[in-house]
Every structure is written in structure tokens, then in C-alpha cells.
Amino acid sequence: MTLDDLKKLATSGTIFNLDRMIGPKIIKILYLLGLGAIGIWTVRHLFGSFAQSFGAGIWGLLEIGVVGLGSFVLLRVLCETLLIFFKKNEAHITLAPTARPAMSIFDDVKDALEELADDDATFEEQKSIEPAPAKKPAAKRAPARKRATASKTSAASKTSATAKPKS
């Protein structure tokens, strides 16, 4: 990396701009460093335990298997958890609407007037549409029970009117 590259990096806003997430990239680097540390510990512990004695070396192999594998799994889970956190945060950021800040009160008033003009235009369009002619309301009918009793009484009155009086 040359001095020009460093100047470009410092002045471009890459470091100071928070539009891009660098956390996932750093986590990948930390994961690789952790794997390297586990590998170095494994080799050092293997040779150190066998240097003491053969029995200690066999015990060291068991320790390497348990502690080395456990630390590898722990490192992996920790890094994946951090990556999931960053991905979830990234999803929330993309879902959030980006509101543009108002430059001045005049811009706010201008935007409000434009919205009112748009509302008036849609109102005029709706007003120009002719409504469909209204239908005549249907004559109200009596409920079924009242109609049945009304028809019985009217039938009875017709039969009594048609019947001949006895003299």
C-alpha cells in the first residue's frame, strides 16, 4: 500500500462513511485468526506434552481432541451468531424508509401545497364522473306473519260479503 493509497482511503470517506457494513468482514478475519490460534495451540500442546513423557503425550492428544474441538465449535458458533446479528440488522436497515430531510420551511410548505393540489385533482376527477341513476326503492312488504294473517282476514271478509244473508 502506497502513500497515495492511504491518502485516497482517508479522503474518500470509506472509513468515516457508515453506509457500508464492515462488521461481517472483520468477523471473517477474526474467525480466521481464531482458527490459526487454535492450530498453533494444538501443535504447541502436542509437542510440549510429548516432550514431557509418552504418557503425557497420550493425555495431551486427548486434551487436544476435547479442548481443541470444543474451542473450534465455540469459535464457530460465536462468529455465526455475530454474522446473524449483522445480517438481521442489515435487513432492518433496508426495510426502513429513507426520509429526505427538509432543506427549509419553504420546502415543507411547497411539498404540502403540491400534496393538496394532487388531492384536489383527484377530487375533481371523482366529481366529473357521473353517478349512476338511483333505483327506486322497492315497496316495503309486510313480514310473512302479517301477510298471512292479513290474507286470512281479507279472505274471511270476502267470504262473508259474498255469503247470502238468511232471511
Mean pLDDT: 75
Shape: elongated
Structural class by SSE content: mainly alpha
Strand content: under 5%
Radius of gyration of CA atoms, rounded to a whole number: 44 Å
Number of strands: 0
Q: Calculate the terminal CA-CA distance, rounded to whole Å.
A: 135 Å
The percent range for helix content is over 70%
H and E order: HHHHH
- Count the DSSP helices: 5
| Low-confidence runs of at least 5 consecutive residues | none
Main beta sheet strand tally, sense and closure:
none
Write the layout of secondary structure elements.
Layout: H1 3-11, H2 23-52, H3 54-95, H4 105-128, H5 144-162
Helix pairs in contact: 2-3
Properties at a glance:
167 residues
Describe the overall structure:
- It is elongated and about 105 Å long.
- The chain is mostly helical and 167 residues long.
- The mean pLDDT is 75.
- The protein has helices at 3-11, 23-52, 54-95, 105-128, 144-162.
- The chain contains five helices and no strands.
Characterize this entry briefly.
The protein is mainly alpha-helical. The chain has helices at 3-11, 23-52, 54-95, 105-128, 144-162.
